[in-house]
Amino acid sequence: MPRFFLSILISSLVLFSSCGKDEDDIKNAIDQANNLLTTRECSAALAELNKVPYQPLNSRFIQTYSSAYACLAGFSEITFFTSDVDRIASGNTTFLPSLSLFSTSAISASTAASYTNLQTAINTILYAGNVTTSSHTSRAAVFGADVAGNMEVQALYMLLAQIGQYVYLHGNTDTLGRKGTRDTPENNNCFTDYTTAAAQAAVTAAGANISPCTDGNYNDGHSELKNGAANRKQYLCEGAVMFNNFFDIITNVTFGSTSNSGSIGSLSDNLSNLCTAGGLGAVCTVKDQTTCESASVTIQDLELYFIAVYELMLTDS
Q1: Among 237, 313, 231, 301, which Cα is nearest to 273's?
Q2: Contact residues for 96 (Cβ-Cβ < 8 A; gap 6+)
Q3: pTM
């Protein structure tokens, strides 16, 4: 065989061997990480995955990577199903209160590791496949509807827990899930301050439907969401983005049986999108933090969103 062709053959064999080794390394990293996750060795599992390049198109890698961060957050699907799923109520005014009662909901700030790590776990799935715009449609285009649906069910469980943390913290909920009644360490009666004329008019129009957030008292929001707070828009956007992603997934994922999912399977039937019903337009569909924090979404947009969604869905009754 001429030396030229022999060189090409050897190079090809080395290339194929290298590709096979890379695939084996990735599979082994995923397997090792999953084994470690069964014993809640979260950091070790993440370290195993980080031994290979990040795999945005490998759904098994994505789900394991997400699980590792969820583990770091203290989230467990076992605990979710044994302790929390049966708490879920599917009515518009009972849904958010029920999430605030989850075993994972009690946090003291949005900088808590349980919150930030769970957000990383959620984002791992929302942006899987290198999608730039989070949506069921964009993920299904990359992975196919079935694989995307499997990933989204995992994300849905975490979103429910994350919304529970968000509501507990910013809604100042008590042990019955009532807004504005825990009063430790804060005593806010509204999620956020309402600084724009349109939002203040909406508070007036809502009346007792958003109690104890009351007409005329427009500066009664949680410290992270108060007017002038350093990261106010970021935290407002986190609330909007996570709820919009939740709604996108729950209306696109089909549950074969509700026997192991409590009220989750009925959420899409029983919950209505109050944001859309309120005629708030594009802000109701924003599912990306970067887009939400851009100039295209205003503080007025967000304040009106919070009245239509969070204040109306969580009261003190």
Answers
A1: 313
A2: 163, 167, 171, 177, 310, 313, 314
A3: 0.91
